[in-house]
Amino acid sequence: MSQTPRAKCYENADFWCPPGWRRIVDALGTQLTSLRVDVGQVKEKFGDLRVYLSSIPANSAKTAERLIWMAEDLASVTCQECGQSPATKETIDGRVMRVCRDHGEFRC
Ligand SMILES: [Zn+2]
């Protein structure tokens, strides 16, 4: 079940992760859990990954922010459907998504 977050930091989060970003979000979750950070929300918005924190120990804030920034950056070149790179933003059925060639303009 792809919508069940595995990492502890996502336990109380409003969580929605596209299948292609699952690995990125799981890896981030493992790192954030080790920093004792709690995530408030994970979502895809206009083709970008967005991760919002609900609680951050002061001494972890910088590291947590950097990890999230790296994950969002990685997602920005990764197809949200299948995880392939490169991926670009495209509007599909009126919705902005981050997709590879297979899931973008050549989609039937
Ligand atoms: Zn794809």
Description:
- This protein is of the alpha+beta class.
- It has one domain (8-99).
- The chain has two helices and five strands, in the order E-H-E-E-H-E-E.
- It has a three-stranded mixed beta sheet.
- Helix 1 packs antiparallel against helix 2.
- The longest helix is centred in the middle third of the chain and has 15 residues, at 61-75.
- The protein starts with 13 loop residues before the first strand and ends in a 9-residue tail after the last strand.
- The structure holds zinc ion.
- The site of zinc ion has 8 residues, from loops.
Mean pLDDT: 92
Q: Main sheet: which strands, in order across?
A: 1-2-3
Instruction: Count the domains.
Output: 1
Major sheet details: 3 strands, mixed
Can you list the ligands bound to this structure?
Answer: zinc ion
Total count of helical runs of at least 4 residues: 2
> How many beta-strand segments?
5
What's the gyration radius in Å? 14 Å
Summarize the structure.
The chain is α+β, with helices and mostly antiparallel strands. It contains two helices and five strands, in the order βαββαββ. Bound molecules: zinc ion.
Question: What's the layout of helices and strands?
Answer:
Layout: E1 14-15, H1 22-34, E2 38-45, E3 48-55, H2 61-75, E4 88-92, E5 95-99
Helix pairs in contact: 1-2
Bound molecules: zinc ion.
What attributes does this structure have?
binds zinc ion, 108 residues, 2 helices, three-stranded mixed β-sheet, 26% strand, two-stranded antiparallel ribbon, alpha+beta
